[in-house]
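Re-running the complex after MR caught last week's input typo. The corrected sequence lines follow. Everything else is unchanged.
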Amino acid sequence: MGAEQPPYADQADEWLVDRCREAVDEAAFAELVRRYRGPVFRLAVSILGQEFAPEAEDVAQDVMVRMHGALGSFRGDAKFGSWIYRIGFNHALNVKARVRYRAPHVSDESLSTTPSADRSPEDQLQDDRRTRAVHECIAELPEVYQSALRLHYWLGASMSDIASMLDAPENTVKSYLHRARQLLHAMLAERGFDAR
Amino acid sequence: MHDDHLMDQLLRDTMAAPSPQLSPAFDARVMRRVRPRRLTQTGRWLIAAYVVVAGATAAWLMRDVPVSAIVAALVMTVPIAVGVSAYGRRITLGD
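Corrected-run output:
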């Protein structure tokens, strides 16, 4: 017995949008939420950072509610996904400006690699310092680089997913990542760390 | 190229934490926020009774007030009431 498929699972986004607008169909809206809740949440958490996941969930929820209120103004000039990601990106940036000075829910250390038992305390301390430095340097990068790095390295998003979330061609995303690594390398070197 | 590869590995190690997940109640919370709020049967009766009593009381209190003053009061208060109501709705929906 297979899992039950949600209603409208095989319909295109545009059809669902029309259905929401014309027939006020709750199931069509629920399908849009099911499709976009995860990517919008990942986009939000990639902007807000690892330590603000609860705020990222609030952003995703606000974006879904805004989507519901703004479906009437969606003209279909751009892809529906691009439209919703742009709302999410802008809202996450606004929230980031507000939570910047708030204490994070978890520390950077607890989000990194787990300590290895066969490493000396000195090596472990050095690794912790470097990890902290990496997180601090990432926070100084341009927003779009930070987002691309977290989506790629932390959240495991594919290049095509990152490209649609950031509304940029895949080659541009690759160059964001390459440039971000170059900048990080230089910033870490300034702080006396190398990538080894 | 070598440095880029090392930085790639460092980032993989540094960001090896598990991805956060949305809470299971996410969909229900969204649907609750977008669903139009409907009054219960009792609520509707209470609102209707309030409107009737308030209207009758206002008419009785204003029996000696000139019509022009009543019109002036309505012109001033109705737009404010509509504005406050629309603002409250916006806040509730989180727009």
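None of the earlier attempt is carried over here. The helical segments of chain B are 2-14, 26-34, 41-61, 67-93. The mean pLDDT of chain B is 87.
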